[in-house]
């Protein structure tokens, strides 16, 4: 695995986006969300997404210039038509707008449709918590998860993020409602390894430890019936308020040719934060259970990985990196 | 187990509350939340709570007359000092106020502190969804749940509820972030049965299947690290915005003498709902997996239990019912 310094990753991705028609300011936002995922060890939301993003621009299903059409349907409700724009560009402009509005109204909502893959939700939660405000965010995805008690993929991996300002920086939680990402299933398949029991079912709905079978079957919700309930509730919440598609009608984050029909929902609440860090430190100071070397708070591992990777570089997938370099070479003449 | 018709349960609980100084209108709200829990099969949030509610009024830590002090700190943010009132009374008045406000502003938040146990959160989600609006609700509780990787109770059972209006009635999801309720642990202990592996740890933080040991230890979060992350995020979110206590400083829902220091947070978003029922019906129509007789949507089982119990009566705990009758007899002279 090649190890690349963050600035070099950033430069290459920004260059590629620029060559495909993304203005510099917008390319910077898209790149930042991908790069932060790499820095935090969330490779599934990192630069492996770049070739698809470029192909979608080429195919006309992503608009590289769009920043979103804002419609304040009431003082606290911002309806955003993403105009087929880059997910992070549309979402960042939307959350900044509702964070500004929440300074006056106390709370504001952005309901985004017609926008592309939003990337790692934690990025948005941290951005707003660093402003001293609270963010709750949801996004939907292609149907990859089966309901509890049924074996067919009908629900997105539907993540939730929560960012809360504290007296010691932002607390950020970000989790999918699937037990694992489809990216990890692909990863096991590529390495020819079996997956743990409970991660998914095959196309006939039977539990399977064969990642190749689960790829065409469904991932399980995390935590059984409760995780299923959460994932389904997020699907309905987002679809109801954004007008996005539901279940198997969601397209456009895993393909190169379909307009993206998922939705994103963000709520920003104006809050002063509070003296929360003593509580978090008390949790960190607990004696670890058997099999654990420490008790972590959500975000701790990501932050330590981030610090390490900023200092020592990012281990990136050899194939992905080679592909990006190849696209760079093939498009060198496009330099503007 | 005696089976009692709903109207009789309602009458007895309202009578008792009235005798302890709760005005009729407020007693009706508190009773409705308890009764709906019984009707839906959530006994842990039903009439077994009544003796404690009455003792807390007697001990002066619950104010039977309070309806909450409302302070609109901004157009969309309602700060509620519960004035030590009955949880359902304070919460219902708060959500009605923010639901009205959201008609104008698009979204509004109620941050409630100094209020008693709020009961089954689904009740609030359903109330608002039935108005054609969306509700997201959170509440905290005494520290009963251990962090993932640590064996000490530091986090509440912190439930979330989501209510979404659909073209076929309210969709309501309500789940705690603990794998099981402490009420169920007590139930196993009372019956002398072992609990399933993974439900909790003993006082030394070791996993245990002895409910008596887990009662003084900690319940596990549902879904491992992800459920832990959610429960902790909800704890911080609620405490940050309501000013309620954190972790082991939360008191007053499991005792008779401490002012209640947990918080409740509700968000109402004005939304027209949508044609969601075809999607839910498609999920229900899936072939059930092995070991399941049907694929259910959250709320389905509660609604079918409710219909049955409305028709055939509610099986209530013999001891609880006897205790309520005994209190009724002892307080007969208090009839006003």
From TrEMBL, chains A, B:
<keyword id="KW-0560">Oxidoreductase</keyword>
<dbReference type="InterPro" id="IPR003767">
    <property type="entry name" value="Malate/L-lactate_DH-like"/>
</dbReference>
<dbReference type="InterPro" id="IPR043144">
    <property type="entry name" value="Mal/L-sulf/L-lact_DH-like_ah"/>
</dbReference>
<dbReference type="InterPro" id="IPR036111">
    <property type="entry name" value="Mal/L-sulfo/L-lacto_DH-like_sf"/>
</dbReference>
<dbReference type="InterPro" id="IPR043143">
    <property type="entry name" value="Mal/L-sulf/L-lact_DH-like_NADP"/>
</dbReference>
<protein>
    <submittedName>
        <fullName>Ldh family oxidoreductase</fullName>
    </submittedName>
</protein>
<dbReference type="Pfam" id="PF02615">
    <property type="entry name" value="Ldh_2"/>
</dbReference>
<comment type="similarity">
    <text>Belongs to the LDH2/MDH2 oxidoreductase family.</text>
</comment>
<dbReference type="GO" id="GO:0016491">
    <property type="term" value="F:oxidoreductase activity"/>
</dbReference>
């Amino acid at each position: 695995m090649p190890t690349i310094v963050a600035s070099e990753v950033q430069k290459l991705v920004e260059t590629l986006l620029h060559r495909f028609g993304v203005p510099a300011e917008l390319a910077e936002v898209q790149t930042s969300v991908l790069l932060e995922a790499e820095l935090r060890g969330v490779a599934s939301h990192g630069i492996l997404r770049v070739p698809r993003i470029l192909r979608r621009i080429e195919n006309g299903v992503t608009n590289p210039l769009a920043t979103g059409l804002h419609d304040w349907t009431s003082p606290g409700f911002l309806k955003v038509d993403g105009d087929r724009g880059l997910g992070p560009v549309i979402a960042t402009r939307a959350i900044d707008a509702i964070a500004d509005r929440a300074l006056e109204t106390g709370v504001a909502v952005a309901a985004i449709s017609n926008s592309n893959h939003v990337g790692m939700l934690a990025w948005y939660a941290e951005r707003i918590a660093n402003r001293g405000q609270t963010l709750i965010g949801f996004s939907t995805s292609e149907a990859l998860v089966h309901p509890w008690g049924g074996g067919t993929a009908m629900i997105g991996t539907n993540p939730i993020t929560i960012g809360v300002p504290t007296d010691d920086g932002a607390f950020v939680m970000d989790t999918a409602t699937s037990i694992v990402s489809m990216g990890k299933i692909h990863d096991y398949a590529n390495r020819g390894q079996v997956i743990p029991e409970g991660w998914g079912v095959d196309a006939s709905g039977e539990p399977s430890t064969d990642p190749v079978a689960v790829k065409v079957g469904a991932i399980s919700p995390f935590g059984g019936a409760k995780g299923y309930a959460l994932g389904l509730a997020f699907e309905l919440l987002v679809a109801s308020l954004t007008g996005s598609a539901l279940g198997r009608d969601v397209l456009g984050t895993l393909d190169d040719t379909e307009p993206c029909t998922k939705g994103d929902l963000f709520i920003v609440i104006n809050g002063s934060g509070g003296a929360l860090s003593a509580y978090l430190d008390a949790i960190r100071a607990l004696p670890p259970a058997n099999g654990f070397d420490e008790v972590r708070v959500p975000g701790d591992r990501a932050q330590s990985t981030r610090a390490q990777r900023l200092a020592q570089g990012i281990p990136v997938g050899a194939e992905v990196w080679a592909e990006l370099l190849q696209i760079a070479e093939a498009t060198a003449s496009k330099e503007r």
